[in-house]
Amino acid sequence: MRLLNKESVEDIAIGAAILGTGGGGDPYIGKIMAMNAIEEEGPITLLDPSEVPDDALIIPTAMMGAPTVLVEKIPRGDEILEALRALERRFGKKAYATISCEAGGVNSTVPLAVAARLHIPVVDADGMGRAFPEIQMVTFHLHGITASPMAMADEKGNAVLIEAIDNYWVERISRAVTVVMGGSAMIALYPMTGAQVKEAAIPRTITLAEQLGRTVREAREKKKDPIKEVLKIVNGFELFKGKIVDVQRRTVAGFARGEARLEGIDEYKGDELIIRFQNENLVAIRNGRIIASVPDLITVLEIETGLPITTEGLKYGYRAVVVGIPCHPKWRTPEGLETVGPKYFGYDIEYVPIEERMRGYT
Amino acid sequence: MSLRIGIDVGGTHTDAVILDKDNKLVAAYKTPTTPDVTTGIINALNGVLRESGVDPSEIRAAMLGTTHCTNAIVERKRLTKVGVLRLGKPATLAVKPLTTFPEDLRKVIGNVWRIIPGGHEYDGREISPLDEGEVEKFAEEAVKQGVEAIAICGVFSPVNPDHEKRAYEILAEKLGSRIPITLSHEIGSIGLIERENAAILNAAVVKVAESAIDAFVKAMKEAGIEKAKLYLTQNDGTLMSVEYAKRYPIRTIASGPTNSIRGAAFLTGLTDGVVVDIGGTTTLVGMIVKGFPRESAIAVEIGGVRTNFRMPDLISIGCGGGSLVKVLDGGIEIGPESVGYELTTKGIAWGGDTLTTTDIALAGGYAKIDDPRINLDRLKHLDPDLVSKAIAKIIERVEGCIDKIKTSPEPVPVVLVGGGGIILPPYYYDKLKGVSKVIRPEHFQYANAIGAAIAQVSGEIDRVFSLERMSRDEAIKTAKEMAINEAIKAGAKPDTVEVVDIEEIPLAYLPGNAVRIRVKACGKLII
C-alpha cells in the first residue's frame, strides 16, 4: 500500500498516454479532476492486488464515449460516484475499492478521482494494460467475468442499470445509452471480488504508468534521452526512428481509421514504416513486413521530448520514435486473440509476439 | 488616389508603410518605439507621410499590429478584474473556472465566478434551460465584487451560442455598457476549459487594448489622417474593426509573427511556401498556405494558461545572427545564448571576445556588413575547420526547421527575412534540403508593417454538426456558407470571398453521427 499525491497523478497521466498507444482519450480532464479531489480530500491509497481481501467487492469505474465530448461537457464530478453507488445498491454492499478498466488514456485517471472522493483505495491494476475501444476488450472478460450489472450515469442525475445476456450486448446497449446521454457517460461495470482481481486483472499498471511518466518528466528536466529509459521499463523495442511524411484518415462507423507513413532517419535511413490505426495504433509495417501488431502496444513518441503522439495528433513533419511494447500474456491466449487480435480489427494476419518478430532485427 | 497605411508597434521599433491601391509600396519609415506608444506611432506616421509627400486625406485605411495584449498577460500588468459566468450546470462542476490559472495571474484577475444552469449537448440539445434569475444574481455579485469585465462561457456554445447570447443581453441590460462582456463562442473552439480560459484572458486585457486603440486613434488624428477607416490585425492575418478589436483584443496576441509571415509572402508574391525569419537571437519558421500562416492544431499556453486559441504554427529555435558558437566535445554548438543587440561590441569582428554566428559568416567570406568598426583581420586566427563546421551546423539547424514545418515531401520555396539572415550562406541556397528556391526580398525589414497593410477580412466557424438530420455534404455546405457570410459581415467584398480552409474532425468512439467542421473564408477589404 502507498499514497498517491498530485505529482503522482501528473506522472500517471503522461504514462497513461504512452500506454494509450495513440488512443484512449487525453487524460487531461481526468487528471484535473483527480488533482482537485486530492487537494480537497487528501492523497489516494493505492493497493497492490496482493493486498486486496479475496471476498472484497471491487467495482471498476470509467468514462465511456467520445473524449471530444468529455473535454467540452466536463462532468459534474459525482455522476461517476452515482454509477458506483448504483452497483453498490444492487449488491447491498459497499465497494471495498475501485480499479481501472483501461490503464491507457483518460480511464487511468478517472478511478483515481473516485478513490479520492470516496476515501476508498484504488487497486494497482487494470483490465487492458493499454487502451482498447470496446467494453468486452478487457482481461476480466477473458476470465468469464460479466460486465453487467453495469451502471451508467450522466450529470443530470439519470442512471441506467444494464443487465445483458453477454458482454457484447453490454457494449451495444451502453453505446446507445451514451449517445442519448450526450456522447459521454460515467460508468461502473465488471463488479468482481478481490479473488477475481488477483486472477483476471493485469497487475501494477498504475505504478507502471507513474514510472513511465516520471521517467519522461525527469529526462526532460535533465535534457536526456527519455526513450531509452522508457524502453527499459517496459521491455520494449525501438521499432523505427523517422519523420512522418504522410497521414491519411477516414471515418468508419464512429472510428477514426487511417494510416501514417514514416521515412527513416539515422540508422533507419532509406527505410519506411507504415502504422495503421483505428483510434489506437494497430499494426506497424517496416519495408512491407509486419513488425508489430495488436494486441502488442505500438506507441509513437516525439523524438526530443519522449511525449506520446495520439493518432489524432499525427501530422506531417513530426520526428518520432515508434516503440513496440509486449502486451500482457493474457492477451496472447486463444481467447485473448479472439477478443483483441489482428483479426478482430479486420486484419487477416496471424499474431506473432513482438519479441519473435524483432528477433530477426536485433 | 486611395492609399493604405500599415503600422507595426514592436518592442524596439515602430514601423509605418504606405501602400497604394495596387499594393505597391509608396514609402516606409522606421522609428524607435516610445513608452507611451502614441508618440512612437505619431513619429512613424509623420515620417512616412513626409517621406512620401502624400496628402494625409488620401489615406483611406490604416492597419495596426500591436503586441500590447501579449505583453500585458506575460508581465501580469494592467489586467482587469474578471467575473466568469459559466453556463452548464449540472455539468462541468468537476473543474471550476480559473482553477488551471497560475496563482500570480489569479491574484490579478480575481476569483469571481458562478456556474449556472444552461449550455448544450454536442448535437445542440439543451443540457438545461438557461436560468435567467441566476444570470441576474451574477450581475449583482459582479457589481458587489468590483468586477471590471465579464467572460461568459457555455458548454458547446460553438455548436449553439443561444444561451451565451441571451445571458449577454441580460447582463448588458443590468450593467449597461461600462462593463465589457466577452462571449466564449466568438473566440475559441471545442474544449471548454481552454475556450473559457481564452475568454477570461480576453476580458482581462480589454482595458489595455482600449487604451492602446485609443492611442492609435488619437495618433491618426494628430497626424491629420481623418478619412481613414481604422483596423487592427489579428492572429490569422486578417483584420478587425476598432470596435470589434476593443471587444476581442486577445485576437491580436500573435499578430506580430503573423504579419511578418504575411508580409514576407506578399513581398515575394508567394502563396504557398515557408518563411524563415532569422533575427538576432532566434529563427522563426512558419508556413504560408494560400497566403495565410498555417495555424497550430495543439493547445497553446499564453502566460502559463492553457487555451485553444488559434495561433500560427511556428517553430522557433535559438539560432540567430548574435548566437554564440561554442566547441563542445569536438562538436559545434550554436545558441541558444545570444549577444543580441550587443553584437557590435562583443562580436570578434568588432573587437570583442565572443564568437558569434555573424563572425562565422564574415570569416566564411559570404556575408558583407557595411560597418567601419569591423576589422576582418580579427577573424584570421579562426581555425578554417571550425568555421566550415559551424557553417554546416547553421545550415543543418535551419534545414531542420524547414523540414519540420513542411506539410508535404515536395521541395518548397523559402522566403528569407530578418537581419540575421546573412548567416545563411547564399552559395548554399540552391543546395538546401527540401527547398526549391530561396528568395530574399527587397524591403524585408518592413515585412511586419507591410503584412498589416495588406491584411484581408475573414469569417470563420467551428461547429459540431449532428449528421442525423443532414448528410455530411450538407453539413460542409452549411459550414461554408456560414463562414462566407461571416466574412461579408466583417467587411469583405462579397465577390472576392473564398473559402481558404476546411477541416473535418470526426468524434471518435461515437457511432458516426457527429462531425466537427472548421471553415475559414477570406476576402478583400472594401475601401
From TrEMBL, chain A:
Residues 8-163 form the S-Me-THD N-terminal domain. It holds the Pfam family S-Me-THD_C. Gene3D superfamilies: CV3147-like, CV3147-like domain. SUPFAM superfamilies: CV3147-like (SSF160991). Residues 166-354 form the S-Me-THD-like C-terminal domain. This is DUF917 domain-containing protein. It comes from Thermoproteota archaeon.
From TrEMBL, chain B:
It comes from Thermoproteota archaeon. InterPro entries: ATPase_NBD, Hydant_A_N, Hydantoinase_A, Oxoprolinase-like. Residues 4-174 form the Hydantoinase/oxoprolinase N-terminal domain. GO terms for molecular function: hydrolase activity. Residues 195-396 form the Hydantoinase A/oxoprolinase domain. It comes from the Archaea. This is Hydantoinase/oxoprolinase family protein. The lineage of its organism: Archaea, Thermoproteota.
